[in-house]
């Protein structure tokens, strides 16, 4: 096996071999490697196939910007992870990775045929081709496209890993642990500011940490040596927290940032177990310093995507940091000085290399050094083509014309096994723009830079466009002193020597003798978009960068165009003849690199997904086999199946028992608001549609509450406990909203009212007993209470004791039966319930759930707000005009009840529906029509509640129907998938219209 | 994610608050006297401007008090916070 690890470095422990599998084959790397560096050490460049043309692709970079080396990690259904960048994944023992987007394997890929038919798949191919015939889309095109598309495979089972969230506050957050970040962190922390420094790598120091060129020195030391000292120093600072393997995912307003800390992704399988995999840091920082650095640009020329073509600086890092050479005969193609550093490093390690430079000449320290070492430099030359299928083996260069628009002279063919390209540097302005910052364009070296720094945010170092070391250190120190309002002198006398780049030449799309249509000049490696595609988009009339991006998919892959966006912009600007700075950029959106869903949800999974509220009687319901229904956050008994009953049978039995003898419901979840104050009556007058002033103490009244737009908002019974004391009940789901709404009016519209509101929903438990035998059961529970209709009539309230515990008893009914609601302090709820059950035994007291409650109230035509209403129903629409006071001058929503829209007679109105076949049960939500023969069928309304009533022995339903009030007796049709159901409009009250049962 | 300086509790995360829309829209004292158009003006019409906006906020998961803020909607900067019933600061228009 070839070994490209050619020298020792302090970051790689060659004594610790790590075995891993790639595409099923076992390899060895060393401790300290990333998957990418280990692959390169084994001579493997080819790591995948491109998305559209299935061209062989190799590792391009050494960081987050990697477009090609993305792999599938692991193969377990729950733990496999797609699209992991091999350049960021730290190697661990037993790692299993495979290449993506190729079948049957990376070396022989059937989709590779796309490469040969590529002239047939231009930009917008899918939009253009799969348009017709229309019917083909769903059955033919989409399944085919889905089969061949996609990068990697998602896990198919729930993620078993543990994720965590942490909230932190800091004076200063420093993003990026390169040289400027380290200087900043030291200055801040030494001035007593609580500081957090985050870096996505496992070792601080950025690209300076492996820098070893004699032309670049700080205080007479190599910059890397100097920086190591600084790192040692900052580690001693007590108010500095350093988080490695931590990357900022999002920068929101008010300096609120999300960071992802990787805790176990670098550990072997057995060490990951039971540990938190990733932690999401929610950071609030008073001040944020962005020191995210810059990434090297590729160059756009024909066949610039072959395996073995990398970014020049990545070759340098693989060599000096990982000890790995990317080849034995390397060519560096550049338009700037930084490739010379790579060249010199390679030369020192004895690796043959030469330089092709776009510039006519150049004259910095680095260039002089390269020249004196005898490194061959082709100035004013351009690479025009490359060769080699699975790896580059040679290339052609030509001389550039004076203006740089064409090539001149003869082709020179050079052999090589690796090509490094350097098109200059792009400042990482992601964080700045995510936080709302604007950008400026610097023509000089064609970079977008943070436009403004604010009092709570600043960019320093190369992400701010400062590229040489002297500039970086001096400017960082000055800016940070001002920004943090401190006077740090640590770097006052720092002596910096560095090479200054004097010459620049940038050409976004490099010239070629071959017509563009016949070239493959890749811009976005991951989405396979080429310079030709961009030009085509412009030709077809696209102008906005946002449109060109979406049409050509440039920058839309998992790498979000970190390497491609600038070139796309440059080519658009050149082609359209506009200045690049005026084009703007596409929007930088979070997250910076992909984020696992697990990280975002943290601990809120499974039973912690949402808060669960249980009543005091919950235990009894569980013991008695209840099926539960979620109502808001509450768990409410839905029905209590007995002896293998299904839901229908249970509900039929429960409903019958409640009407024939007695039923009991846990009504504790209803919202309860305690209202006190001298203006309580006046307050109720204003919030309910009916009148409250005359409600006697000890009496209850049903009320409907509207929104200001006149639509029904909530309903419930309110009891007058004493002169200035009421207890309001609300719907279970509406409780919190009603309280908020009432508070809003009290605090903002009617602050003059003396009223206090307290939520007591959780303070009282409620058992509701209904049915003809309920009075007898109550009598057993409260033997001293006079339950006669004279003393305790319907809609009234008494206080009595059970075993010395106060109970509030309301005689109110939601079922139409004689009914009592017993309220007791919640801690006694379960005991009360059990006593009721015990007392009711001889009367077949049957516990019933929400489904039976719904059925019983529907038999009586009582509405449920939110089921029979949907925020567009007025009381009149509900045929409840009786509840709206004509006398009251004002209440919430009154004026809206006679707006032109609310008095329309053809509004949807609540009606009853009876099916012609009494056994046919309608589906809730089913549409209602009057005619099924016309071409255009008018929808008149829909079914809101539907049940089979065991007490009436027929199907009943409530519905909202246009002009329903006037339609009683009329035939309507409910069209279903395979039949039409005939119904007749009826009254909404199906049972006991005279309320005989209530007063029984 | 805003940091809102509740006039009763101090600076808190936005997640503790709920927004109540445009401020200083007074509920008419005599709604019955209003025409449909006038009532609709109160009921539906909101400015939703880019720039300085007066807003109602509620410290829903805190003291539950309502208060007003002045916010520049173009950059989300909260320029002023004041209690219900207090006059809006005059230097923002």
The CATH homologous superfamily of the largest domain in chain A: Probable tRNA modification gtpase trme, domain 1
According to CATH, the fold-level topology of the largest domain in chain A is Gyrase A, domain 2
Overall tally of domains of chain A: 6
**Structural class per helix/strand content of chain A?**
alpha+beta
Provide the gyration radius of chain B in Å.
14 Å
List the helices and strands and how they pair.
The complex is a heterodimer of chains A (1000) and B (93).
Chain A lengths: L12 E10 L2 E7 L3 H7 L4 E4 L6 E3 L11 E4 L7 E5 L9 E5 L13 H4 L8 H5 L6 H13 L13 E14 L3 H12 L4 E4 L18 E2 L2 E2 H13 L4 E4 L2 E7 L3 E7 L6 H4 L3 E15 L3 E3 L12 E3 H9 L8 E6 L3 H11 L3 E6 L7 H8 L4 E3 L1 E7 L6 E7 L6 E9 L2 E5 L2 E3 L2 H5 L4 E4 L4 E4 L6 E3 L9 H15 L12 E2 L24 E3 L4 E2 H9 L5 H8 L12 H12 L3 H4 L13 H5 L16 H6 L3 E5 L2 E6 L7 H14 L2 E4 L4 E6 L3 H8 L12 E7 L5 E11 L2 E6 L4 H15 L6 E4 L4 E7 L3 H8 L14 E7 L2 E7 L7 E7 L3 H12 L5 E2 L2 H10 L48 E8 L11 E2 L12 E9 L4 E9 L8 E5 L4 E7 L14
Parallel strand pairs in A: 1-7, 8-9, 8-15, 9-12, 15-28, 17-24, 18-19, 18-24, 19-20, 34-44
Antiparallel strand pairs in A: 1-2, 3-4, 5-6, 5-7, 10-11, 10-29, 13-14, 14-15, 16-25, 21-22, 22-23, 26-27, 30-31, 32-33, 34-40, 35-38, 35-39, 36-37, 37-38, 40-43, 41-42, 42-43, 45-48, 45-50, 46-47, 47-48, 49-50
Helix pairs in contact in A: 5-6, 5-12, 8-9, 9-10, 13-14, 13-15, 19-24, 22-23
Chain B lengths: L2 E4 L3 E4 L4 E5 L13 H9 L7 E7 L7 E7 L4 E7 L10
Antiparallel strand pairs in B: 1-2, 3-4, 4-5, 5-6
